[in-house]
Each structure stands twice: as C-alpha cells, then as structure tokens.
Amino acid sequence: MAYRSSPHGRWVSPGLLDGLWRQLGVDTALATVLGGRRFTTDVERVLFALVANRAIVPASKLAAAEWASNDVAISGLESMDEDQAYRAMDLLVAADAQAQVQEAVFFAVADLLNLEVDLLFFDTTSTYFETETADEFRRHGKSKDSRPDLPQIVIGLAVTREGIPVRCWVWPGNTNDNSILPEVKDGLRGWRLGRVVTVVDRGFSSDKNLDYLRRAGGHWIAGEKMRDGSADAQAALSRQGRYQTVRDNLRVKEVRLDDNTGKRWIVCHNPFEAERDQAQRTAALERIEAELERIRQGRERDAKRKTKGGRKISDESHRLAECALRDHPSLGRWLRQTPSGRLAIDRARSLPKNDSTASTCCRPPTLTCPLRMSRLATRTCSKPNAGSVTSSPPSNSDPCSTASSHASAPTCCSAGSRCC
C-alpha cells in the first residue's frame, strides 16, 4: 500500500521506508541502546511506525497509533495505541542519552552517500507550545517565532556542508545561545569526525566560545555584524585592498590586522543588497520629509486660526503626530530632536554605512582548494549582507594564504575564521 507524502504527488510505501530504516541500521542501533529488556510491544517497531507516519501523513500520536493499527501493514507490528507511542519515546530518550543512535545513523548515511565531514554548520531555533503552563523544560525565553508569551524549547542542529544532519540537541526554552557551544563541541568529541571546521553565526561568536572551539587544534568560522561596533571589525573594514569577485552578488577581501591573535578577517560585500539598502534608505527619508512637511504645514495653518471663543487651536494633534513618527519602528532611527523640541532628519545617521558582518576563521591546512572554498563562502551566507568581515590565523603551508587572485578570503573562511 502506498500513500501520498506531499501535495506534489509523491507516493511513499511504509515498506520502502522500512527497507531504508534497516539499511541505515536504525533497528540495530535501537536494539543496542535498549539492551536486553523485554517489552509487550516491540519498541523499535513502534518508533518506526511513528517515523513512517511523520514522513507520510503527519498526525498526532493518537492518530498515528490508529493509522499504524488500521490503515497500513507494518512488518512486526500488529497494532499499537497512544500510550505505547509515548512510552517508546520516553524509553528512547532515557536509553540514548549519549546520542548513540544518532551517531550510528549518521555514519551509516555518511558511508552510503560518501560524505566528507570537513565543515560542521551549527545553529539553533525555537518552537513554542500552545499552553500557558511552563515547566522545567518548556520555559519562556527569547522566541524566534515572535511568541514570547508562550513557553518554548530551544533546538540545536549540526549539519554537514551538504546539509545532512549530524546531531540535534534540545534545551529548555530560556537557554541562551552563547552558553551551549561547549556542550555541542563536547558532545561530538567522541564521534571520530576528524579535523572539522565549526561554522557558527554571530550569536555564538563570543571570545569565550571561540577559545573553546580552538581547543585541541580546533578550527572555526564565526560571523560578526559590522554595526555592532567591534573595534577589530571596524579596523578590518578600514584597511585598503581590492575585492575579489566570487559571484555576481558576492565580493570578498582578505585583511590581516597587526595583532597577535593570528586571525584573518574576510570582508564580504554584496553590491545588489547595497543598492537595495540605498533605495530603501532613500524611500524612508523621502517618507519622513513628507510627514514632517505635513506636520509643519498643519501647525502653521492652525496657528492662523482661532476657535469660536477667540482662543488659539491646540497644538496637541501635531505633537502626537511627531511622537508617533519618532516612535516608528523603522523611521524613528533617522530622526533627532532639536533644542526647540521639533523633529528633524539626522543627517549623520542618514549617510550610507557599511551593513557588514565580520567573521574570523581558523583553517586547517588540508582545506586548500580556493574554488571549493569560494563556493562555500557563498553558501555560508544564505542572505549575504552588504559587507562582512572574516579573520583567521595565517598558515605558511597553505597556498590559499597567498593566492589572493583565487579569492583567498573564502578559503580562509572555510577553515577557522570569523565569517559571515
């Protein structure tokens, strides 16, 4: 029996998924972590049924149990109920605290797809629960779904350069990004991944985290926003040098600062986004000028008029309009208040600035292909800013450290640097 797995017309059979499940060794890995304990219902089969349901017709645990019992034939499982589904998940969480199942599945996939794990991209997200009650795990925190009113959890995922998942983590909803990177590095220490470059965004790029990633010869790439006012990033941006074109929307430039950190900074510039930002800035200023002119004309008009009682018309409505403009989430930052209390455009802030991100890298000498790293730099920035910066320690043995004509900046980005 086959089932439609998406509205695009693809059909998937539970038997096909079961064959892939066994080829990847998931059944064997589960048997290993669950040990010799005996259960009235095969836990591995219940977990497979939940995975198959999620892949084919995603539903609640109750609906998944009914689906597995009545709608499909799953080898080794005659029926199951909702309680067995929840118990199987609880057993898996308790038995696989060291992520042995994830490790076994990843290496099976790596062998099957001949993956080369030289880059490890890591990031977090959050997901909320439709409940007002928080507990020790579901907690209120900084929501990436714009729902701070609901309890949530934080989910972390490490993937390869091809986007293949390596391992996932789950933390309480009030966990801060800067506090989890050591746990991620320690959790992968025994996985025999070899010499890996860890790529993180600016949310993880504290000096403490980067020092931890550098332990035992580790390498990293980390993003840093130029607007954050980092002294090193500003110094890197001010250095002279030619950009190397990686592709139409990305130019890069390598910068070395005169310090003892050994970091390399890669300045990345997106001309298309720079033009878009300039157009948005111009439109915002024109909108502000029109609104200020409207308020000014209204104030002058009312100043010449009087009420029936001979009194001047109140200026309250114009002051409220100015307050609304000043507090506007996107327009207010272009304004300043004059000594007279009136609003005016802040010309210093309205000047074009570098919307840049800064990055630092620590590259292993094995990553030496400039073209390959140029492609990496393009993928690393899913939405490249108008400019970005990266830094990494020099390497005399690496041809990329001197091959500026081959876009050495992205190459450095690939192996241990602060990048976009």
Topology:
Elements: E1 3-4, E2 11-12, H1 14-23, H2 26-34, H3 43-56, H4 61-71, H5 82-95, H6 100-113, E3 119-128, E4 152-159, E5 165-172, H7 181-187, E6 197-200, H8 207-213, E7 219-225, H9 231-238, E8 244-247, E9 250-256, E10 264-269, H10 271-303, H11 316-326, E11 335-337, E12 343-345, H12 347-350, E13 356-361, H13 370-380, E14 387-389, H14 408-414, E15 417-418
Parallel strand pairs: 3-6, 6-7, 13-14
Antiparallel strand pairs: 1-2, 3-4, 4-5, 7-13, 8-9, 9-10, 10-14, 11-12, 13-15
Helix pairs in contact: 2-6, 3-4, 3-5, 10-11, 13-14
In short:
With 420 residues, this protein is an alpha+beta fold.
**Chain-averaged pLDDT:** 78
Which bin fits the share of residues in helices? 25-40%
Low-confidence stretches: 363-420
Approximate strand percentage: 15-25%
Global shape: extended
Work out the radius of gyration: 28 Å
Distance between the first and last residues' Cα: 47 Å
Structural class: alpha+beta
- The ordered H/E elements are EEHHHHHHEEEHEHEHEEEHHEEHEHEHE
For the largest beta-sheet, the strand count, sense and barrel status come to: 11 strands, mixed
Q: Helix tally?
A: 14
Strand tally: 15
Question: Can you put this structure into words, describing what you see?
Answer:
The protein is an alpha+beta fold and 420 residues long. The chain is 38% helix and 18% strand. The strands form 3 sheets. Strands 3, 4, 5, 6, 7, 8, 9, 10, 13, 14 and 15 form an 11-stranded mixed beta sheet that branches. A two-stranded antiparallel sheet has the order 1-2. A hairpin with a 5-residue loop joins β4 and β5. It is extended.
